[in-house]
Design goal:
Strand 2, helix 3 and strand 3 form a beta-alpha-beta unit. The chain has 16 helices and 8 strands. It has helices at 2-36, 63-69, 93-99, 115-127, 150-159, 178-201, 216-222, 231-241, 262-294, 297-305, 308-319, 321-329, 335-361, 367-370, 373-392, 410-413, and strands at residues 50-56, 80-87, 103-107, 136-139, 145-146, 164-171, 212-215, 247-256. It is α/β, with parallel strands linked by helices. The longest helix is centred in the N-terminal third of the chain and has 35 residues, at 2-36. Strands 3-2-1-4-7-6-8-5 form an 8-stranded mixed sheet, sandwiched between helices.
Length: 414
């Protein structure tokens, strides 16, 4: 009886994971096609005024770099203001930001910690004042550096009628360690195979936590309301439930600092998976029901994305199938148990072949980075125990801060 139950469970897991994997692989191909059907860029006059928000908790080592960086954007200085949110800081973050010329908003609230709460508070403090005349808000992290044409690209997209935009998240330190390299490969390939693909197909892209832009009227209409551990995913779901798509701004580049060590990476990714599991528990049924009722493929695609930690765990179970075959079935195995792992091997190989192609297209491929490919596979495998932890700890809403120390100027990157 136990064998029959295990057999049925593995069949269900494999069928669901097969369709999920095939769906994502099929979508990712359109990220390559998007490059082949590139639309011409239209340049507009700088018509939009931006409020730039930078949440910062004890970021004295890096905050000066981005504040200085933002002074030299290729956009009229009277068309954007910079607001640094010194969120429960106990260091010199506020002083350094103010000295650099930023507007500093000092927040003290030990009961509501985290980036989502900080943004919610800052938006209310700035955007709802009578004299506020901003057309859009932009959010960066304190460790970021920003391409000089970022606001120019966002202005172009907003003038074309887009309301919510995600910029290209690049890496500030891809060669610092095998972890930073693995992160960089993951983000670069996601930009092309996930975000570009969805933009090409008319689906919704995903807000990536930094380098995103939101029309002020949209923000006032639906409110921020995203205060969980993955506020970017939660806000994306709120947008989609209100019929607002997230679009992609490929040429608006923001450079993000990646964690240096496996321990730092583990904590950050566990927080992401905790947040994913939390958002999935609150939004999956709601969004799926609405998607089916309204025949909205974009909304269903977003709902499926929230299943990520559970699908990673399913992938881990599939890796255990040979173990169960050997120790439980004693050689007397059903054909479906043997057959499905071969499909996953093929999908895995094809996906790993798509990644170098995506890196080549965007000029990110190098032989040095390619030497890290075996460690990138290890990085991918660590997602399995991280996801298990994340699902178990999904009700733990305690924010864990990632320490940033990599000081660079934008001139060193561009």
């Amino acid at each position: 009886m136990i064998k029959d139950i295990l057999h049925s469970v593995f069949i269900i897991v494999q069928i669901f994971a097969l369709f999920y994997g095939f769906y994502y692989f099929s979508i990712s191909i359109y990220g390559i096609l998007e490059r082949l059907n590139k639309k011409p860029i239209r340049n507009y006059l700088p018509l939009k005024k931006f409020a730039i928000f930078i949440p910062a908790h004890n970021e004295e080592k890096v905050i000066g770099n981005i504040v200085d960086n933002l002074k030299y954007l290729n956009y009229p200085k009277d068309c954007y203001d910079v607001f640094v949110i010194a969120d429960n800081c106990s260091d010199n973050t506020a002083e350094i930001a103010k000295k650099g010329g930023a507007n500093v908003l000092i927040r003290k609230d030990m009961d509501n910690k985290g980036k989502g709460f900080a943004l919610k508070w800052a938006f209310r403090e700035v955007l709802y004042k009578e004299e506020a005349d901003y057309d859009a808000v932009v959010v960066f992290d304190a460790d970021n550096l920003v391409s000089r044409n970022f606001l120019k690209e966002m202005n172009n997209k907003l003038c074309e009628g887009y309301k919510v935009l995600q910029g290209y998240i690049d890496s500030k330190n891809p060669e610092d360690s095998w972890i930073t390299c693995s992160y960089s490969i993951a983000f670069w390939s996601a930009n092309r195979l996930f975000q570009c693909a969805r933009e090409y197909l008319g689906l919704s892209c995903q807000i990536g936590g930094t380098g995103f832009c939101v029309d002020t009227n949209v923000l006032k209409k639906i409110g921020w309301g995203a205060t969980c551990l993955v506020e970017d995913l939660e806000f994306t779901m709120r947008l989609m439930l209100n019929g607002i798509r997230v679009n992609w701004a490929h040429n608006a580049v923001v450079y993000d600092e990646k964690p240096l060590t496996l321990a730092q990476s583990w904590r950050q990714r566990r927080r992401w998976m905790q947040g994913f599991a939390d958002v999935c528990s609150r939004y999956f049924i709601k969004t799926t029901t609405k998607a089916i009722r309204e025949k909205d493929w974009a909304l269903l695609d977003c709902a499926l994305y929230t299943l990520q930690p559970y699908m990673i765990i399913m992938g881990g179970l599939i890796l255990l199938i040979p173990f169960f075959n050997h120790f439980i079935y004693d050689g007397d195995m059903f054909i479906i148990i043997n057959l499905f792992p071969e499909f996953f091997k093929v999908f895995g190989m094809l996906q790993f072949l798509l990644i170098p192609i995506s890196l080549l297209i965007d000029g990110k491929f190098s032989y040095k980075l390619f030497l890290y490919y075996p460690t990138y596979a290890l990085y991918c495998l660590t997602w399995i125990p991280i996801s298990i932890q994340g699902v178990i700890m999904k009700n733990n809403k305690e924010w864990s801060h990632t320490i940033h120390t990599r000081t660079l100027s934008i001139h060193e990157l561009e």
